[in-house]
Structure of 3-phenylpropionate/cinnamic acid dioxygenase subunit alpha:
Amino acid sequence: MTITRLPSTHEGERPMLPTGDLCRPQGIAPTIDVSGLVDRENGLIDRSVFTDRRLYDQEQARVFATSWLFLGHIDQLQKAGDFFTTFMGEDPVIVTKDKAGRIRAFLNSCRHRGARVLRADYGNTRAFTCTYHGWSYDLEGNLISVPNEDGYHDADWDRANWGLVEVAQLETMLGLIFATWNPHAVPLDEQLGDMKWYMEAFLDRDSEGTTVVGGITKWVLKGNWKLAAEQFGTDWYHVNMSHASALMVLSPTGRGPKKEIAETPGRQYSDEHGNGTGFPTHPKSRFDAQPVHQYYNYAALTDRLGQARVEGPLTTGHATVFPNFSYLPVNGSIRVWHPKGPDEMEVWAWTVLDKSMPEDVRTAQRLYNLRTFGPSGIFEQDDGENWSEIQAISHGWRTNTIPLNYQMGIGSEREDGIYPGSTSTLYSDAAGRRFYARWAELMNTPAWHEEQR
């Protein structure tokens, strides 16, 4: 297959979306056909998927507007009125617990002039009040107070029509909160499919569930969000080269891992929804932080989760839930890659631990996470440098015409009867190919909000 370059222009009428009695054009139409940019069969990706602003705008409307997106951890909402703010794509969102104990999520934009209703990162409140003109909303999103409201009487005014915009669906799973703007999205459990089995190896080790500690670490990186999401889903291949110095520091001898560790066998799971995870497999798979390793009863974990999970995805590995939620079991790191234009992302990272962990073990895992990942982590800095380097040169004319190679592991996918779903070798681009295939499928499919009404 020959990679097809993007057209310089596109034409067509924009679809209309009603908002009350108001209709206006939405998104890019007829949109850019990305079929020639992703060649899953031959493992080729056009570099413009990382650099083209038109594609970025289209993926906001067709990938982020339609997919289940990670919002946070249920531990961040303890009682009624607790809230935190985050993003769904580039849309700012308030996540809160209402008076009935229900978790809800709203667009963080006042219906009056569009300013953010809430500017704090987290806290507790009885109502959300915009600091521009004072419109105020309750925990259920209803508009409850409008200064000088008498001025609206001649305009057929009804507060009920001007509440906060709520997400179409919200679900919690294994302590995590996901939501979507898409009223027609399949249930979250169906979207995850077999991926949930792998997630349970990380998030269901403790019958009491998980907790988050240490707040949220946030930093900005130059690089397209997909570079990070695909790596966490598919790329064990970079570890021995990119992280060579970090592996030397962490090894007992100071010379790096032994050959049998550096060339470890393993498996990589991927599915048609774009989810992916890879992990070494070893009968003595263990946690890196010594206090964490000593805390766990691996025989009990085998009884709870099964031998395959304990020897595989329980500890060392990497994973991405499409499109932009990723995690690392070995240090309890979960993160979301917030898109901030085609050339930049904002990374938000949490440390997730089992609730039953004693304080000294929690501290050891949290510190191990900070030392290895996060903006000052010895592994994280390597990754950020790689992504920024790729993005920095990808706008060059000749550079941007050369397809990228995602061919490793083609033909190795199979159902092995040990790990659910389709898996390939650990050193493989299989999950990357499926990640971009899913991206291309959504990019070429009219979204729910593009339907003519």
Notes: The domain at 69-171 is CATH 2.102.10.10 (Rieske Iron-sulfur Protein).
